[in-house]
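re: that complex we talked abt at group meeting.

here r the seqs, copy pasted straight from the sheet so there may be weird spacing, ignore it
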Amino acid sequence: MNVLEVKNLRKSFEDHLVINDLSLTVPDHTATVLIGSSGSGKSTLLRCINLLDTIDDGSIYLDGKEISDPEINVDEVRKNLGMVFQSFNLFPHMSVLDNITLSPIRVHKVSKTQARDEAMTVLRRFDLADKADQFPDRLSGGQQQRVAIIRSIAVKPRLLLLDEVTSALDPVLVNEVLSIVRDLKSDGMAMVLATHEMGFATQVADEVCFLKDGNIVERGPASQVISAPQQAETKDFLRRVHEAGRL
Amino acid sequence: MNNDSPARDNSGRALSWTPSQRELERQASRKAIGRKKALIATLSSVIVIGSLIRLIVTSPGWQSVKDTFFDWSYGGEVLGAVAKGLVVNIRLTIIAAILIGIFAMILALLRTSRSAALTPFRLMATAYVDIFRGVPLLLVILLIGFGVPALRIEGLTNSVLILGTTAVVLTYSAYVAEVIRSGILSIHPSQRAAARSLGLSSSQTMRHVVLPQAIKRVVPPLLNDLVALLKDTGLVSILGVTDAVRAAQIASSRTFNYTPYVTAAILFLLITIPLTRYTDRVLAKSIKRQNAQGAA
Ligand SMILES: Nc1ncnc2c1ncn2[C@@H]1O[C@H](COP(=O)(O)OP(=O)(O)OP(=O)(O)O)[C@@H](O)[C@H]1O
Ligand SMILES: [Mg+2]
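got the structure back, here u go
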């Protein structure tokens, strides 16, 4: 069963074509990693899947249901999608616990006590229980991003979208965030993630997609795309990543 | 601090220590600098303010001004009446502030909403704000205070107090709506995107994510408006409401002495100055908080 199917997606901003005839399939419990240079359209693809941007053509299916239908209830769709942004976007006026329980309580109508219990369980699992009552501005960047990830899975989404969740972080903080993603992956959470961390991509990816100018130029298991790329563009990109010291 | 168990930080390291010789020297020199600054400030204030007072007191008309504006025994006599008038201003301010808060919030939400169904109301709200921000408050008070009773509509009030308050509420709601709206617009779109991606509807996003942050930001400017509101309630005296201004006017026209006006001014200041100081403190705190957030 495929959680996500993207067919012939097109998206442009004014006269700038950002996603060009892109198709993508994500089977349940698998991780698809998007790699590609800056501006290749990774964030835009994720935003389109989450219906934050309207698409120009093509279709998107979540659990076999077309969500690119303009008639669809966007809020209902988003109940099944978790998204984490590069810049965390925690709500600064709420404690960590309130950030996490907001959607379960307001959107999913879980009781307050149950939502808090469940949130505390996850916080404990990821060593953040002592931060439950803190406000986001008192947390390190890595802690904030981990909370943001916990917040996005608190609603038990079918699919998690992660957009460069480590690129705003100091190198020392990157690992604590990546380890939480690895844990979620081994829990069986289906995810699509954009990243510049090739080592991490190799570890979690069931499929790696290399994007160039809004299209997938090469796709396959990490052992193939990252370790033994076939296309000239992929080789070129990976060589530049390697020179930047990120492989 | 207790010497047996000095305060400790989270990791158990002692927070108190014995300052080094160099630190003690620094502290002493900081104190000396402080004393020198205080001395300069005092001297310069005494010289500037002293010569201003001298200029006024030695002016040819000072004696007559003193008798007509600063007759303290007459001021004491009318103090009760003026203070009673001020209570009217304060009551009016409180009631108006509550009504303004509600009405302005509705206007601001209408103006920032994107719902298609609300389009006519959004246009009306925009027109309303444009009109009431552009007409002087005194004119609105006169138009409503004299215009509404002239309509002679059955059941509509003729109370000048209610009509005057209505005029103040109508005008101030337009100002305050704009302040709230600017607060709403100042919240970064990424906050909205994060809330929507969690499945919150646009009204839930507004209520739980955008508004609480926006209101925190606009509290200082709104406190400024509260001070202005208190002063502007004095304008309803033109309709004959016996507030502090009107009470002073009555007292002064009886004796052709203007001391009651000065008395009223001092009473207003007794409330507005502490309120202004408080506003400054709130503003300083909120700037500090926002900077801390930016750094995190
Ligand atoms: N709202 C927008 N309006 C106009 N152009 C946009 C908008 N959002 C993105 N773009 C453009 O679309 C292109 C793809 O951007 P996108 O953010 O998807 O790239 P990316 O692959 O995520 O890059 P990065 O690795 O730097 O995050 C860029 O050229 C960008 O300038
Ligand atoms: Mg991006």
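couple things i noticed - The first helix of chain B runs from residue 21 to 57. Residues A 42-43, 163-164 surround magnesium ion (ligand 2) (CB under 6 Å).
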